[in-house]
Amino acid sequence: MHPKKLATGERYPTIIVVLHWLIVFLTIAMIPMGKNLAALDPQADKLILMQIHAMTGMTIILLSVVRMALHLKGPLPAPDPSWSGWMNLVSKVVHWGLMIVSLLVLVSGAVSFVGFGFLDLVKAGQWAPWPNTEAIPPLDGHRLMIKVLIGLIALHALAALYHQFVRKEQLFQRMWFGSKEE
Ligand code: HEM
Ligand code: HEM
Q1: Closest-lying ligand 2 atom to the alpha carbon of residue 98
Q2: Full-model pTM
Q3: Measured between alpha carbons, how far is 108 from 104 in angstroms, rounded to an integer?
Q4: Looking at residue 133, which CATH number applies to its domain?
Q5: Least distant ligand from the CA of 147
Q6: How many structural domains does the chain have?
Q7: Does residue 182 lie in a domain region?
């Protein structure tokens, strides 16, 4: 049996779909990238990786701000009618949690980068002396918020898979592309 295709009003707007999957891809790539960056001894590669991490991060900030504005502006698809009140509430809380915690990761990274010597190194093209990363409070925030973000992503992804494959709802179709005429 072919599942019914969703009408436009039952899907997220295409622009939100594009932003969602682009942000997912970039954010997930940033986690191992950051770990490798932190583990490297100061050298040319570390400086290059720092630049890539910061530039990708700045891009995610811009995309996330646009996504949050669109999310606030709406209209968003109506909740699945088979969902109970608490499911809708938990999904709202997790979606806002993801957006806010992502923003905290991004801002704590940007503050550490700009205010604690990394930007100066990039501007000078030097990798020494690398800032003491154990003594930068916003970087502690960056590390803590990354842990929270990983937990939220796992929860969110598992919930999405549960709704799609166990409850057999068309959740991924809601966050995917579809033709306008439908
Ligand atoms: C989705 C967003 C981001 C993710 C998932 C992420 C992830 C990470 C991770 C996993 C680390 C290693 C932490 C450790 O174990 O010590 C790290 C370090 C770092 N990140 Fe990010 N980051 C993000 C955004 C940013 C942004 C926007 C900036 C700056 C503009 C930034 C600047 C830094 C800096 C300065 C470090 C420390 C590098 C070092 O140890 O020498 N991050 N990040
Ligand atoms: C960095 C990781 C992620 C973030 C920050 C994130 C964020 C969000 C947010 C905020 C929404 C609400 C809609 C909107 O964008 O305005 C959403 C919906 C959705 N996400 Fe994610 N997401 C992430 C990863 C994933 C992954 C890995 C999956 C799949 C396994 C996934 C599947 C979905 C689906 C299916 C929806 C639609 C839910 C509905 O119908 O209401 N997301 N996501």
Answers
A1: 5
A2: 0.94
A3: 6
A4: 1.20.950
A5: 1
A6: 1
A7: no
